[in-house]
Design brief:
heterodimer; A: about 325 residues; mainly alpha; ABC transporter involved in vitamin B12 uptake, BtuC; about 0% strand; globular; B: about 350 residues; two-stranded antiparallel sheet
């Protein structure tokens, strides 16, 4: 009997892992596309926050769930555009621009949330996404129900891994993105508009980040609250390094990190534990730092990362 | 459109830049005030009145200027050396933790010994915390932006554990807070019936100290040289890594002192809401000051006005006090543009 429950726990644990990994997958893919084009997007934390607020607010005002996701992507893209205006076209410090975008997007999220719902004490709720069962696979006893019945956004995240991987490595646009991230001068000599490609990558990446944020309010939870993103964006930045800028490895990294999140929830449910639950909450942040240290020797940063490109200037 | 470097940046332009940037930020944010249905002139009038309209209001604003000056200096000194210390928040908290470890009865010393000891302990703790990502940067080339940011979350969880667990004050009626700092460890008040404390003088002295350090000493010269061009500095014989480590200890130390100031000047005991993001706001303060230590005092005062004023404005109007954070965030972006325009000329062709 005990073994049986252990087995259920294992399956449920993996289902939770996949769920917790979803925002990380979106965020990491988004950051990866930005960095491949040579732009470090530190706006990710704020863009995820405003994505979670925008998507939720759309649905709360009576919109459809998928429209909410699209709206989040649109708002994320707008902030990506603002980021690229500063970091790509004006060539300003990517560090400070990104932090500014994060501060602006988070504070705007909270401001707009408070202005639209001034008199609420408990966070109002929406009806989040229902799970989708993957046909056939979900019929596998026990494991099928745990692993293959997931939020549609989780399926979308897995699909995006394939799409981003294909797009980056098998299409001319992907080649252009990688080229402006490695050697913008050579790219320009080939007739590629460096600024356009970079800002396009940042806009697309930011939209993905915002969709990751919207998963938090439209699927994982049913409400928006202050401080919800809780450093997930920064973890994504570490995950990109951990994944050596490859979408497939990004998926593995996100799953690995999320498994600790899932474990942490399990531990918090148990009444008494020898290890304080804060240790489990710390784990993703500590692991991010450890991952950065391990990868530091082998990190193959895109060569032009952080370097603004000004036409006709060396 | 093309950008061309200017040969010379006049003092007037260097000062006008941030001022114009702040005005632009307030103009942009007036759109949000309009959206919320309030009058812009009323809102800003209430904001400034709330921050500067009475003796008590001014004292409150100066109290907040204190902590923002210290976190602003922490960012300014580090950014000068291109050490991207975004971990001011975590360093502030470990500073407060160190002061709690020594100031809650462990050392029964008179104030003139205990208070400097607490500041020293806080500065040491903050400096050591920043030392970790700094050594990772200098020796393993790990990007310090992400590591310092991640450490903020780790430290907050650590404080969470401490005030809910081993440090929880049994006399605090169940509130998650550490034991109170003993009377000998508390900073004296500067003005009767206000919360303005001697930490304000510590912050001013730190700013002057940082200015002297950066402007007139070899260390300061080396810090600026490393920030301007590490390769050239290395060729000129500047010990680059040692300079970065030194910068980290100073920067983290200043942020740690900010935590001590809030703890022994204002709150009296360690809680989880000791700082509502003062470490992050310090980055904006430093950028608004153009990383100039004396300018930090002014920009910290401005940001304090915005935050305190927004609190009282939001009580009178239907504008959420998150407007303060929006204004400072927009200021960070506008000041970036103004810095670009003071260093470069726009050429249309």
């Amino acid at each position: 009997m005990g073994d049986f429950f252990d087995f259920i726990f294992t399956a449920g644990f993996w289902a939770a892992t996949l769920r917790m990994a979803t925002p990380l997958i979106f965020g990491t893919l988004g950051e990866l596309v930005c960095e491949r084009s040579g732009v470090l997007n530190l706006g990710i934390e704020g863009i995820m926050t405003i994505g979670s607020m925008a998507g939720w607010m759309w649905v709360y005002q009576g919109g459809e769930l998928w429209q909410g996701v699209l709206f989040a992507a649109f708002v994320g893209a707008l902030f990506g555009l603002l980021h690229s205006l500063f970091s790509v076209y004006l060539g300003l410090s990517q560090h400070v621009t990104g932090l500014g975008i994060t501060m602006l997007a988070s504070s705007l999220s909270y401001f707009i949330f408070r202005m639209m719902l001034p008199n609420v004490t408990t966070p109002p709720k929406i009806v989040p996404f229902d799970s989708w069962a993957l046909p056939l696979f979900s019929d596998i006893p026990v494991l099928g129900q745990a692993l293959f019945v997931q939020s549609p956004l989780t399926w979308l995240a897995l699909l995006m891994v394939l799409l981003v991987g294909y797009g980056l490595f098998r299409t001319p646009v992907g080649l252009a993105i990688r080229m402006v991230g490695e050697n913008p001068m050579a790219a320009e000599a080939q007739g590629i508009n460096v600024h356009l490609v970079r800002s396009g990558a940042v806009v697309f990446g930011s939209a993905l980040m915002a969709v990751g944020g919207s998963f938090l309010t439209l699927s994982a939870f049913d409400a928006f609250y202050i401080g919800m993103t809780n450093g997930r964006g920064w973890i994504c930045i570490a995950l990109v390094v951990f994944a050596s800028w490859r979408p497939g490895k990004a998926l593995l990294g996100a799953l690995f990190f999320a498994s600790f999140d899932a474990m942490q929830m399990r531990v918090q449910q148990q009444a008494s534990s020898a290890i304080p639950y804060q240790v489990y909450l710390m784990a993703p942040y500590v692991m991010s730092i450890v991952a950065l240290i391990i990868m530091s020797r082998r990190a193959a940063y895109p060569k032009a990362l952080l370097i603004p490109f000004r036409r006709g200037e060396r | 459109m093309r950008l061309e470097p200017r040969d010379h940046v006049s003092m007037a332009m260097a000062v006008a830049g941030p001022v114009l940037a702040v005005l632009a930020a307030m103009a942009i944010c007036s759109l949000l005030i309009l959206w919320s249905g309030s009058s812009v002139s009323d809102a800003y009038a209430l904001l400034f009145k709330g921050a500067l309209g009475s003796r008590f209001a001014i004292s409150e604003t100066l109290t907040r200027t204190t902590v923002l000056t210290l976190t602003g200096l922490a960012a300014a000194v580090a950014f000068r050396a291109k050490l991207w210390n975004i971990g001011g928040e975590g360093q502030l908290y470990v500073g407060a933790c160190a002061a709690t470890m020594l100031g809650t009865g462990q050392l029964q010393w008179p104030p003139y010994l205990l208070i400097p000891t607490l500041f020293l302990a806080g500065a040491l703790a903050g400096g050591l915390l920043l030392l970790v990502p700094t050594l990772l940067k200098t020796h393993l080339k790990v990007d310090e932006v992400v590591t310092t940011l991640l450490l903020n979350f780790i430290i907050l969880l650590l404080v969470n554990y401490l005030v809910f667990g081993p440090w929880k004050d049994p006399m605090a009626m169940g509130w998650p807070q550490a034991a109170a700092i003993i009377d000998e460890g508390l900073l004296p008040k500067l003005l009767a019936k206000t919360r303005l404390h001697a930490g304000f003088l510590v912050a001013l002295a730190s700013a002057v100290g940082a200015w002297v350090l950066m402007r007139f000493t070899v260390w300061g010269y080396e810090i600026r040289a490393v920030g301007a061009n590490p390769e050239a500095a290395r060729f000129a014989g500047v010990p680059v890594n040692r300079t970065i480590v030194r910068t980290a200890l100073i920067s983290g130390g200043l942020a740690g002192m900010a935590g001590v100031c809030e703890l022994i000047g204002l709150k009296g005991y360690l809680t989880l809401d000791l700082s509502p993001g003062f470490g992050y706001t310090g980055i904006v303060v430093a950028m608004l000051a153009g990383l100039h230590p004396l300018g930090v005092i002014l920009s910290a005062f401005f940001v304090a006005v915005v935050f305190n004023g927004a609190d009282s404005m939001s009580r009178a109007l239907s504008v959420s006090n998150y407007i303060a954070e929006v204004i400072t965030a927009v200021s960070l972006l506008t000041v970036l543009v103004s810095m670009l325009l003071t260093r470069y000329k726009l050429k249309w062709k």
